[in-house]
Amino acid sequence: MGSFRISPSMAVVAVLIILTLLGAWRYDGFLGTYNVQTVLRYNSMFALVALGMCFVIMTGGIDLSVGSVAALSSVVAAHLSHYGLFPGLMGGLCAGLLAGTLNALIITRLKILPFIATLATMLAASGTALLLANNQSVSVSYETYFTNLGQGDLLSFMRPEWVDADDAGILGGVIGFILSFPTPAFIALAAYIAGAIVINHTAFGRHVLAVGGGTEASRLMGLPVDRTIFLVYVISGGMAGMAGVILASQFGAGQPIEGIGWELFAIASVVVGGTLLTGGNGSIGGTLAGALLLGIIFTILNFENGMGWISLSAYWQSVVRGLFLFVVVVLQAKLSRSAQAA
Amino acid sequence: MTAITKSFGGVPALSEASLEVMPAEIMALVGQNGAGKSTMIKIINGAYVHDSGTIAFNGAPWTAGSPQQAQRAGISTIFQEINLIGYRSVAENIFLGREPKRSFGLLDWTRMNTQAAALLARFDVNVDVRAPLDRFSTAIQQMVAIARAVSFDARLVIMDEPTSSLDEAEVSVLLRTIQQLKSEGVAVIFVSHKLDELYKVCDRVTIMRDGRTVAVSAMKDISKLQLVASMLGRDLAEVKKKGATAFEGGGSKIGGELLTAEHVSIGHRVHDASLDIRRGEIVGLAGLLGSGRTETARAIFAADRKTSGSIRFDGQTAEYNGPADAIAAGMGYCSEDRKTQGIVPGMSVAENLTLALMPALTRSGMLDEARQREVVERFIKEIGIKCSGPNQKIRELSGGNQQKVLLARWLCMNPKLLILDEPTRGIDVGAKAEIQNLIRRLANEGLGVLMISSELEEIVEGANRVFVLREGRTVAQLDHENITEGDVMHAMAHGHNG
């Protein structure tokens, strides 16, 4: 009691650090600006989707629609990007929020199980994306700065020249790193900070965990159970929408067939991050670490291929990633059992 | 079976309990919650293995390794919650696991259906055996469960509260079925809290309390009052003494009407429950298990819908859509099931205490954590919650301290009425007295309290007035001066004032 206790989400942070050190030791340029930028830029989409999923899973629910909602949002954003950055951004975001609202309505009003409700939305959103895109990718506007959302580096305009000089030193390196932080990673980071504040410091956030920890107990103490469940699906839809906007911006086109399997990636990030699938307990920071871990494993496998000693096909990469997930989840289960016993 | 002992993690559930049933005998098995009935049943049917003692079945020593083995040997159990498969047909449910087959392992549907129909006809049940089971009423489903038991050539059928969710007509059909079983030479162990039923069909009764068998008697040799007294562990001579003396002076502060519930009914469970509570008054709600106490409380709190009847609270008609409305009107409810309907186990003491209060603690969207801490610390001190600090997880606390947190959860919202369902169940003696005194203190400050308890002592000593429910009806109202354990028991047993 009161003594130091290892929380399950620490397992993922530990593995994350070990893998990062391993990568830095084994591969040239693993912690170089270019690689870090690429990893962060690409994985910020997944991180956003995982954040939304984390809210849903904390209530004991699940959102299978995130991948195809992101695809739909990317198409909507690409279409609207020709009217400017803002319409593109808002269009994609709203498409996601709308899909989330649809999920929320089906689940709270019609009392349909989240698994089924979001499965239906997943299929419907995918079809809508293909219809809106005419079954091909929709190119975005390159005149409206829309592509900066996904491809730009938010602070690069204020980069002083001395940072890139050879004698810039550690300070220069740190400042350089911050200034080369990609825009989508800033968006994801901001979302995670906001998410952590909401969960830990607002009534809504505590209600999310209470509903997941005991739905009947929550109802009997008069908590707005339905409203809480409603909102988490809207949040998840919004995060998927934002991920779709970044997807369109980063790849220069709305991608109606992207997003397949994203929901599983997101669920994996959440679970690896120490959030219980049954709800009631979880960690926003752990989810971020989980998403980063999956991204880093992917990068390491790429580097390994690049070194030319072994060559892993994409299929084998999936197998290796699956094994890693398994190890982390087992480790985590052990930790949480010993925490229970304490 | 004799001298059966069974412990769970050092806590004895049964200590030297015994039970004896003759062929073609209907034996009633009664006792309060926690008396050990369920454990006893589960040992007979092989779900548990006993620690010591001997069991004989058909004259030979016997240990059931599993419910399947017990069933094959001729012991079938029918649980309160029907454990059949609702989506499958009636016939399939009867023959699941031993389906009649034709050559090549194919199912013989014709034989299955005719045999099923023939079996059910023995109990005067004529239904389409090909229809899914869940299309039929609970009573029919129960018959199907009995037919399944009989089809195993059961020599002993155990029924655990089979009538608790049946209406009167259905009950009489079920009781006929039980007598039919008896006439075929089958022994029956019948668990029920409805005394009238027991007297109607049972030959003998075994009464259990605190894991022991306290009495065995022929049904016709024991009065209802004696039966209730020995279930509750009360001496008939002693119960004549007056209660309520412990709280003399409490009554002087009772104010005006707070809640009036009239002719409330809820499905099959409650038919005509009426009660009223005044400000500053502790009203006890007594009754045997299954008498509709919890159901009535939940209907008042709008956790379940009432089918009919009227409730007035605080001068207004109480037509609420859910607990949130009831809470807004000034009610609080501590459920009897602390673990699943009370605490949120993974959360801290502070959070469990303030979850319902959070909207009031929120300033411009953010939780005011300084005020939250203030509230939590005040209540921890005021009602003496023993914990290492506000951040300790509530599941690490003792039952008594968990209950105090739940009480504080409501108290911090300044309720007018607190409904307490078994507030001291599973709580050790010291903490129990603390909680009882706390409840009294709160009532003296003007809070109305509705207290459900299976412990007569708690009701008699703690309440200003007592309402007694029996099979879903209010059968007695006992005032301050008249409350004795004897009176309450009499009403529970006979349905009217002695």
Write a brief structural summary.
The complex is a heterodimer of chains A (342) and B (498). Chain A contains 14 helices and two strands; from the N terminus they run αααααβααααααβααα. With 342 residues, chain A is mostly helical.
What does the secondary structure layout of this molecule look like, with pairings?
The complex is a heterodimer of chains A (342) and B (498).
Chain A: H1 9-26, H2 33-58, H3 66-80, H4 85-108, H5 114-132, E1 138-139, H6 148-151, H7 169-179, H8 183-201, H9 203-213, H10 215-220, H11 225-251, E2 253-254, H12 262-272, H13 284-306, H14 314-341
Antiparallel strand pairs in A: 1-2
Chain B: E1 2-8, E2 11-17, E3 26-30, H1 37-44, E4 52-54, E5 56-57, E6 60-61, H2 67-73, E7 75-78, H3 90-95, H4 109-121, H5 138-151, E8 156-160, H6 168-183, E9 187-191, H7 195-201, E10 204-209, E11 212-218, H8 224-232, E12 257-266, E13 270-278, E14 282-286, H9 293-300, E15 308-313, E16 316-317, H10 323-329, E17 331-334, H11 338-341, H12 349-354, H13 358-361, E18 362-363, E19 366-367, H14 369-382, H15 399-411, E20 417-421, H16 429-444, E21 448-452, H17 456-462, E22 465-470, E23 473-478, H18 485-494
Parallel strand pairs in B: 3-9, 3-10, 7-8, 8-9, 14-21, 14-22, 17-20, 20-21
Antiparallel strand pairs in B: 1-2, 1-4, 5-6, 10-11, 12-13, 12-15, 15-16, 18-19, 22-23
Question: How would you explain this protein's 3D organization?
Answer:
- The complex is a heterodimer of chains A (342) and B (498).
- Chain A is mainly alpha-helical and 342 residues long.
- Helix content of chain A is 71%, strand content 1%.
- Chain A has 14 helices and two strands, in the order αααααβααααααβααα.
- Chain B folds into three domains: 2-222, Rossmann fold (3-Layer(aba) Sandwich); 240-330 and 415-494, P-loop containing nucleotide triphosphate hydrolases (Rossmann fold, 3-Layer(aba) Sandwich); 350-413, no CATH class.
- In chain B, the strands form six sheets. In chain B, strands 7-8-9-3-10-11 form a six-stranded mixed sheet, with helices on both faces. A six-stranded mixed sheet of chain B has the order 17-20-21-14-22-23, with helices on both faces.
- In chain B, helix 5 packs parallel to helix 6 (168-183) and helix 8 crosses helix 18 (485-494).
- Chain B starts with a strand and ends with a helix.
- Chain A binds chain B through residues 1-2, 201-203, 206-207, 209-210, 213-214, 216-224, 280-281, and chain B through 301, 303, 322-324, 326-328, 333, 335, 340-347, 351, 355-356, 358-359, 361-362, 365-367, 369, 388-389, 392, 396, 409.
